[in-house]
């Protein structure tokens, strides 16, 4: 098998490396970004087409695949770039692409691709030791919707997301492998408390508390 990159791959990698050289100079790499810097970088990544890289064209994406996503992630990681691309585009965006209806994709993915919105995935819970299926957060039917109660931890970029994709239990016990669903929760929803913090590499993450959300 031929594992060499084609000309398009090389051009993408070079474009992202140039972006990183300008936005993350070596002497400042790893420093925490101000909100203004984060917004400026997000706008620049959107202009380069990076934030919609794996999404389909009808939602503002570029229809690119795993190799292209890997090249961008590698370049950003080498420059100690912020985690918004991984959290919003790679994790949340692709989860929405796989699980969301066409209407839901049209509702949110264009905003992610343009950088006007951010999403984060809330998987893990304290004491679960990174076993995301060990979930105590519960969703209970209420009228035409659901009410969520529980806690989530280590949500990458969770304090800057506009929408949180929360894994919650709709059936079964805490350790069951089935009975889990994903809920799109507005970050301003009543009953949702977001506690943001710096990670060891000066990125951002958050703990979530959901009380009758």
Question: Which features does this protein show?
Answer:
213 residues; alpha+beta; 4-stranded antiparallel beta sheet; 3-stranded mixed beta sheet; 7 strands; globular
Write the topology of this structure.
Elements (H helix, E strand, L loop, with lengths): L6 H17 L11 H13 L18 H13 L5 H16 L2 H13 L4 E4 L15 E5 L2 E12 L6 E7 L10 E7 L5 E7 L5 E7 L3
Parallel strand pairs: 1-4
Antiparallel strand pairs: 2-3, 3-7, 4-5, 6-7
Helix pairs in contact: 1-3, 4-5
- The portion of residues assigned to helices is 25-40%
Task: Give the strand tally.
Answer: 7
Q: Identify the strand order in the major beta sheet.
A: 2-3-7-6
The string of secondary-structure elements, in order, is: HHHHHEEEEEEE
Rounded Rg: 18 Å
Main beta sheet: strand number and arrangement? 4 strands, antiparallel
Strand-residue proportion: 15-25%
């Amino acid at each position: 098998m031929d594992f060499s990159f084609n000309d398009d791959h090389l051009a993408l990698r070079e474009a992202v490396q140039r972006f990183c050289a300008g936005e993350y100079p070596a002497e400042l790499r790893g420093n925490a970004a101000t909100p203004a810097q984060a917004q400026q970088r997000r706008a620049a990544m959107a202009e380069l087409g990076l934030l919609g890289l794996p999404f389909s064209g009808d939602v503002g994406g570029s229809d690119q695949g795993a190799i292209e996503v890997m090249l961008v992630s590698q370049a950003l990681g080498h420059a100690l770039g912020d985690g918004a691309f991984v959290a919003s585009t790679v994790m949340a965006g692709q989860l929405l692409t796989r699980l969301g209806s066409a209407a839901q994709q049209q509702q949110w993915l264009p905003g992610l691709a343009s950088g006007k919105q951010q999403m984060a995935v809330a998987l893990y819970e304290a004491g679960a030791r990174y076993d995301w299926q060990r979930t105590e957060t519960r969703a209970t039917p209420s009228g035409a919707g659901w009410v969520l109660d529980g806690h989530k931890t280590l949500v990458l970029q969770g304090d800057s997301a506009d929408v949180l994709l929360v894994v919650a239990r709709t059936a079964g016990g805490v350790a069951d492998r089935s009975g889990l669903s994903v809920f799109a929760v507005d970050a301003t929803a009543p009953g949702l408390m977001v506690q943001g913090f710096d990670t060891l590499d000066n990125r951002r993450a958050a703990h979530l508390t959901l009380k009758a959300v």
